[in-house]
């Protein structure tokens, strides 16, 4: 379960036409790949998460959970641009022997998927039993399915969309304005832009949670108070937490990658692209209280992928509900997989008896 590094060691072309001279991808695996390589669970993580899915998605992933290392070979790769081990703006540019900083080329969700394909080939993975992700992870899941570069049996997309909305881009641009308002953001040093990052995280958190959640968790008991509110200290605390574990440049580039998500780019109408995701058992999960990825975006996906199922996950916590409501997710996803696994077993028995 320790962090592993895949060194590609070759030129890595980006969708923009630019190239990285080489890349590395950090990843975790859990369990063992079975003889027929049919037990792969691939997890795509969200914006500031890492490849240790047992750490950040407990209750759904773990030794005794639905997705466990006894039955499955679980893979989670750290995305390109994230500083949790994969090539990112603070990596050394071999052409200059200095970190890239803002000379790092912009990349897209498709570039991230290209990296996943390379890692899958490195691990000897030719098919994925279940591909799952939420938020930016869900964008990766859909892009990988649309790219048709690997066989996928079951697809689970949570709190995500087929293309990033103007609303979502506006949220991200507002955060980038906070990043660049910090004068140190442009300085060539690893801790550049941390005050801006703190402000950006505070802004993002509002889109991850709900009015009602704040109304309960941050409510004041002292009605005479005129300053030092719980909600204020909570925002500051959450900003500080991210500053301690992330960097401003990775955050800037990853929000740009999220903005780039559009299944229809160079392919045609989004509806047609989704319709082309055929032969994959698909479960799309929306959260009615999600203001960043509202449920009509997931309904659109489920409507256009042939035979896709749609489930509404009711959560007090908004977008972050996909990380919190793991008891419900376990039941819903477990039932979904059991249904199709049962059908697959029946089909195998029929074929064996023919």
UniProtKB/TrEMBL annotation:
Binding-site positions, substrate: 201, 320
Residue ranges occupied by any AB hydrolase-1 domain in the UniProt entry: 40-312
Compartment(s) of residence: Cytoplasm
Keyword Oxidoreductase part of the UniProt annotation: no
GO molecular function per UniProt: homoserine O-acetyltransferase activity
Pfam families registered for this protein in UniProt: Abhydrolase_1
Alphabetic keyword roster: Acyltransferase, Amino-acid biosynthesis, Cytoplasm, Methionine biosynthesis, Transferase
Major location category of this protein: cytoplasm
Location of the active site: 135 (nucleophile), 290, 319
Known EC number: 2.3.1.31
Listed pathway(s): Amino-acid biosynthesis; L-methionine biosynthesis via de novo pathway; O-acetyl-L-homoserine from L-homoserine: step 1/1
Top enzyme class: transferase
Family annotation (InterPro entries): AB_hydrolase_1 (IPR000073), AB_hydrolase_fold (IPR029058), HAT_MetX-like (IPR008220)
Catalyzed reactions per annotation: L-homoserine + acetyl-CoA = O-acetyl-L-homoserine + CoA
Its biological purpose: Transfers an acetyl group from acetyl-CoA to L-homoserine, forming acetyl-L-homoserine.
Subunit text: Homodimer.
Similarity field: Belongs to the AB hydrolase superfamily. MetX family.
Name of this protein: Homoserine O-acetyltransferase
Organism: Sphingobacterium tenebrionis
């Amino acid at each position: 379960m320790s962090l592993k590094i895949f060194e590609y060691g070759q030129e890595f072309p980006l969708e923009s036409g630019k190239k990285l001279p080489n890349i590395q991808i950090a990843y975790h695996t859990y369990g063992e790949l079975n003889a027929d390589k049919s037990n792969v669970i691939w997890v795509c993580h969200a914006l500031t998460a890492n490849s240790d899915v047992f750490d950040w998605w407990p209750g759904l992933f773990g030794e005794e959970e639905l997705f466990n290392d006894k039955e499955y070979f679980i893979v989670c790769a750290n995305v390109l641009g994230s500083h949790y081990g994969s090539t990112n703006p603070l990596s050394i540019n071999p052409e200059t022997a200095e970190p890239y900083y803002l000379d790092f080329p912009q990349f897209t969700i498709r570039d991230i998927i290209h990296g996943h394909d390379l890692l899958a080939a490195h691990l000897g993975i030719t098919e994925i039993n279940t591909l799952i992700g939420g938020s930016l992870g869900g964008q990766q899941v859909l892009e990988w399915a649309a790219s048709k570069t690997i066989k996928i049996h079951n697809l689970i997309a949570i709190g995500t969309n087929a293309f990033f909305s103007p609303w979502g881009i506006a949220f991200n641009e507002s955060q980038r304005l906070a990043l660049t308002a910090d004068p140190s953001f442009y300085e060539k040093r690893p801790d550049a832009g941390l005050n801006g990052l703190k402000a950006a995280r505070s802004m993002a958190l509002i889109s991850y949670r709900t009015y009602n959640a704040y109304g309960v968790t941050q409510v004041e008991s002292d009605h005479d108070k005129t300053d030092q509110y719980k909600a204020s200290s909570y925002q500051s605390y959450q900003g500080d937490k991210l500053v301690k574990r992330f960097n401003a440049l990775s955050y800037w580039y990853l929000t740009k990658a999220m903005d780039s998500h559009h299944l229809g780019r160079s392919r045609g109408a989004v509806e047609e692209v989704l319709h082309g995701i055929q032969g994959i058992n698909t479960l799309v999960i929306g959260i009615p209280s999600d203001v960043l990825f509202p449920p009509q975006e997931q309904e659109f996906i489920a409507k256009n992928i042939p035979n896709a199922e749609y489930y509404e996950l009711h959560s007090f916590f908004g977008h972050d509900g996909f990380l919190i409501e793991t008891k419900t997710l376990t039941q819903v996803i477990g039932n979904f997989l059991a249904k199709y696994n049962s059908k697959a077993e029946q089909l195998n028995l029929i074929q064996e008896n023919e």
